[in-house]
Structures are given as C-alpha cells and as structure tokens.
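pinned: reference chain
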Amino acid sequence: MSTANLTAILIAFIIYLAGMILIGVAQMNKNNNAEDYFLGGRGLNGWVAALSAQASDMSGWLLMGLPGAVYAMGTGQSWIAIGLFIGTVFNWIFISGRLRRYTIVANNSLTLPEYFENRFHDKKRILLTISSVVIIIFFLVYTASALASGGKLFNSVFGVDYHMALMIGAAVILVYTFMGGFLAVCTTDFIQGTLMLICLMIVPIMAYMSLGSGNMTSLLDQSGVAGGSSAFLNLLSNGEKPYTAIDIISQLAWGLGYCGMPHILTRFMAVKNEKELKKSRGIAIIWVAISLGMACVIGVVGRAYLFPTVLGEEGTASAESVFIEMITKLFTKDFSLAFICGIFLCAILAAIMSTADSQLLVASSSVSKDIFKDILKPDADDKTVLRVSRITVAVVAILAFAIAWDPDSSIMALVSDAWAGLGSAFGPIVLLSLYWKRTNIAGAIAGMVSGALAVIIWDYIPCMNGQTPSAYTGLYSLALGFAISLVSIVIFSLCTKAPAEEIVKEFESVEKYTEEA
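pinned: its structure tokens
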C-alpha cells in the first residue's frame, strides 16, 4: 500500500477516534450522580438503546471472529449466528421489558448484582458478592478479546507492532469511558452500530459484484477449501466432515448466553419508557439479523475475492483478518478511495470499542457500586463512588491488556470462554427470577456458583485423557453450564424455604407496574 493511501486511512482513523473522545468530554458534565454514570438516568430513547445494546454485544467478533470462522471452515459455522439471532429475539421479547420493570420495583436497582440482591432481599449480600466476582473474572477475558481485536486491526492495516497497537486502542477506549460513563458509551455505541451496519452491507456486495456470480464456486475450489465448494457452502458440513448433533447444539447454544450478559441487560434497564422499549425491540432484531447474515456472507465471498491469497497460510494474515483484507483490496486504488477505506476500517474499530467500553463500565460498576459502596463503605457519597469507578476502569483495562498481550491469542476463543462463563452464571437466574416466583436465594446462589464452576472446569481442567472436557467431547461449555445452573436453581429452591410473602408480593406487583407504565 502506498504512503499516500496509508496517510488517508490514518486521517480517517484520527478523525474517528477524536470524535469518540469529544463525545466523552461532552457527556462528562451530565454525570451528576451514580445513576447518571451507570444507567444514564434511565433516559435512553429507542434507537440509542437498540443500537447500543447490539453494538456492545457483537464486538470485534462480529467483523473478525465470525467471518474468519466461516472463511476457514465454511458456512457450517453459521450455526453460531443462527443461535445468536434466536437468543437476541428471545432476550428482547421475554427479558427486556420485565427486567426493566423489575429493576425499578426492586428498589431502583442500577446494576445486575444489585438487582439480584434486591430481588431476593439478600441482607447478607452473598449474591452481590458472588455476582460481582463473576463479572470481574469473565469481563477481564471479554475485554481482553476486544483489545486483541484492536491490536490485530492496527497491526494488519498500519504494520504497527501488535503491542503498540494494543496500547493505542486501550488508551482511546479508556479516555472516553473514564470521562463520559454510560451516556458516552451509549452515544458512541449508537454511532458505531450504524457504521458497522453500513459497512457490513456495502463491502461484501461490492466484492461479490466485482467477482461475478459465475466465478464463485470455481474460485472457492481453487482456494483449497476442505471438501470442495459444495461442502464449504453446505450448512451441514464442518470442513470435510458432516456436522454432528453435538456440533450443532454447541453452536446454537451461543444464543443461551444473551440472558446473562450484564452489558446488554443494563441497556434494557436504562430505556426511558415502555413505548421506547417496544421501538428498540424491532430495531435491534432487524439490526442483528442483517449484521449476522452479512458477517457470514463476508466469510464466503472473502474466500473467493481474496484468492490467490489464502489467509492463514504461512506469510499471510490470519483468517480473522478477512474483512480487513477485503476492505483494503476494494478501496486503496487512489487517495479518495483510501479515505473511504479508512472509514470502513473504523467500522471494525467501532465493533471493538463498542463492546470494550461497555464491559469496562459494567466491571467498574461491580467494583465501585456493588463492592465498594454497598459492602465496604455504605456511607460513601456519589463523588467518591464515581472516583472509585473511574480508577476501576483503568485497572480493568490494564489487566485485560496483560491478558491480550499474546499476539497469537484467538479472538473467537477469548469471546467463547467469557460468553460461556457469564451466560451460565447469570442466564438461568435472570430468567427464573423474572418468571418463577418460587425461586429463592438458595437457588440463586447455587445456580450462579454451579454455572460458573461448570464452565471453568469444562474449559480449563484437563481431566479427560490429558484434555479438557470441552476439547475431548466437542460440547460447548455454555450448553452444559446453563443446564447445570438451571437444574441447580430449581432443585435448591424447591428443597429449601419458600420466599417470604413480601418477596412474592413484589414479584406479583411487576405485572401491575406494566399496566401503569
């Protein structure tokens, strides 16, 4: 790539990054208290809530991890996208409205751990402590995946050393999250979600048109796809092998994670009113359907479009860089196109930043609000809580930076581990706390602990012929962890004392709150 083209791309990046920081500065003075910093005063409109929720959800995984998996293995990897779409629809229809209402009824809970405490009237604050620790552990890994995505982006585009690229991406995310809090994060997420959608629609269509429909299958065959183009384009093929039931269940199980993602659930809690929430629901579902579908198309079209280059071979970028390589090839013919190239590459940066900032904010809220304020120093004022929160944002970013230090770390693997841990620990208890009034504190504790431990053991303990159970069986830990957590909640709730009458009345009052809203 010429120096002029690199300069044009760099200008686009600088403009974009400066804009994100300016948003953080603009929102800084709007944070008058903890509710403003963590939930934006519960004042999000429908469009911002929808795009913020989905942009913070998808991360660099959408534009790098998923297309890379399809590029390397074929359309069979799309089962993950199908599972995520089903999970998104379920989350918006069955979780969003009831969770928003319940968090208001349950003493205006600002965070997910605080909701658990208030929902079960946990005077000993056991749930608050457990859920905060789970969030911190798994969000460190999740944030690391976003930073690794940023490092690979800057390294691939500018040839910047991976570790230097990590520092640049982490610094920008840190600045506007540190200053602006929830409003800054949601405003930037709205812009980033819009940019991601535009880029996802334009790039694969332009690449396909430049190839011509008749050349796709022959180019796929020439690129050496496992099993030939017919297997590559078969939803039931996993490379040269047919998909097994465990393969499909594991990939569909990704959808289960949505019920337990704190950075997504907080968007539901922050929407202005029921009318805006209904608007958000439709916008979000349409956004995610288009985005996931086009991300899979990028993997397929990119395999043919980039040939004779085959990513993942010695001397080439990894398969997770397929979208970057497509944009670069399409838009670097002259200076003006190179600037457009830079804007489109910023869509990948947008996906990365929109998730990392949300994760940093949720992790900081768990430390400053749930641990520091609610457990260690209940008399702390809002200014002290905000100060602790901002310090936590910096500390979490530094620790995630350390986890992402290895340039060979897989974005897909990091996201997979974090998604499974959060989904298993929180998904079943969020669902049952909203819809089963017999759920009690013993069940909630058992569900969180068993779900988190199941994922850790399944993914990290090599207890089956020297392999982890995940590697040995091929079953995604989220499928197992979610099931174990769900069963544990039911068994422990039924075998222990029923919830107090005041808890049951509060549960029933959520329906009445709907009629008043």
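why pinned: The mean pLDDT is 84. Residues 151 and 214 are 37 Å apart (CA to CA).
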